[in-house]
Amino acid sequence: MDLKAFTQLVLPTQGRLFRLAKLFLRNREEAEDTLQDVLLKLWTNRQQLESYQSVEAFAVQMTRNLCLDKLKSKAYQTTRGEVELHELGEESVSPYQQTEFADSAALMRQLIDALPEPQKLILHLRDVEEYTFEEIEQVTGLTVNNIRVILARARKEVRTGYLKVNNYEAGH
Question: What CATH number labels 94-172?
Answer without folding.
Answer: 1.10.10.10
